[in-house]
Design goal:
With about 260 residues, this protein is α/β, with parallel strands linked by helices. It has nine helices and twelve strands. The strands form four sheets. Strands 8-7-6-9-10 form a five-stranded mixed sheet, with helices on both faces. A three-stranded mixed sheet has the order 1-3-2. A two-stranded antiparallel sheet has the order 4-5. This is Thioredoxin domain-containing protein.
Amino acid sequence: MLAGRCWAAFLLRAMASYGFCSLLAFGLLLLSAPARSQVVRYRNNDSPKLWTAIEVDTFVQQMNRRGRSAGYEFRARINKTITRADTVIHEYNLHGTPTRAAELAHQQQLQAWVGKPLPAFSLPDLQGQRVSTQSLRGKPVVVNLWFTTCGPCIAEMPELNRIHREYATTDVVFLALTFDKKEKVQAFLKKRPYAFRHIAGATTYCDQFTSGYPTTLFVDRTGIIRRVLGAIPIRYDAVTNKPTGADDQAFYAALKQIQE
């Protein structure tokens, strides 16, 4: 109330001193003054950190340098925009798309493993319990090679989780191996569910197969690799960029093959 009286007094004094026309011009000047511009920032769905456009672009370039050997091109896909009084926040995920030529070359490289024994390993899972090729003998095994900032890896996780639930009553073993360190994987899993049994820090083991991720090995009961697949193709809505389904026929065919 006091503030209103003060403002009214100011207007009266201004009208007396400068005249109504001058006051009108002063008011228009106030209205035309530019409002404080909003700051635009970007936030990855896996991190609370706010990034500038330059930082996001730098990160995408780094991922493209890493993915180039496997023929992947990465781009940031905005999933949601939050508008505040002083800030516009674009939430994004990183998505990678392989070129057709690179995809074929990658598949040829991976197919060389088909018919060979799964290389021996004995590594601890996140709970410290050791997993070895010897302990897996006699069971069908799905081995997913991934890493925590891999866009295609993250994109297929809901589908992998669904398949894992579907096969929960079978003897199929679902393993996820990554070169990322244990602490990084644990932090990731607190934000995103990924139901496979996890083995972290397996850099040497992962590197012998591929530099392109994700890669999934399907191993039969005798320890022989029967199929090797890349990412499960995910379909997206053209308008919302939300996933609408997956082309998982090849994955199911591979699962059937190793259960025979």
